[in-house]
Amino acid sequence: MPRKPEFDPRYFHFTQVSLFAAENFPPCPRNAGEALRHLRMLSEMPQSEGQAMARFALEKACAAYEERNERGAKPETEALSVAWQTFTLMWMDELGEMIPAYR
């Protein structure tokens, strides 16, 4: 009988960040603080070096976007878009499942 996969505690924080970054792009800068909170919680959980680098880059992009406080500000929006795409590539596989922290 196949084993049921265990729930990855990182998944909740990932989905909360995705609510900010993926829906209604460019996102509202006021919501960047919530995304930052979840990214910082992810930093305390197991992750590979690549995942940590992608998370940190997205954290910096969210902070810059929040600081600018202008929806769709050109350089900050582009940086946020690239950081979000890198983050999803490092954290989720093509089936939408969390990539293990240590491969």
What does this structure look like?
With 103 residues, the chain is an all-alpha fold. The protein has one domain (10-91). The chain is built from 4 helices and no strands.
What's the total count of β strands? 0
State the domain count. 1
> Strand percentage, roughly?
under 5%
Q: What is the N-to-C order of secondary-structure elements (H for helix, E for strand)?
A: HHHH
- The shape is elongated
Helical content class: 55-70%
Radius of gyration, whole Å: 14 Å
Number of helices: 4
Poorly predicted runs: none
First CA to last CA: what distance? 25 Å
Average residue-wise pLDDT: 85
Largest sheet: none
* Structural class estimated from helices and strands: mainly alpha
Write a compact overview of the structure shown.
This protein has 103 residues and is mostly helical. The protein is built from four helices and no strands.
List keywords for this structure.
103 residues, mainly alpha, 60% helix
Give the secondary structure arrangement, pairings included.
Blueprint: H1 10-21, H2 32-43, H3 49-68, H4 74-91
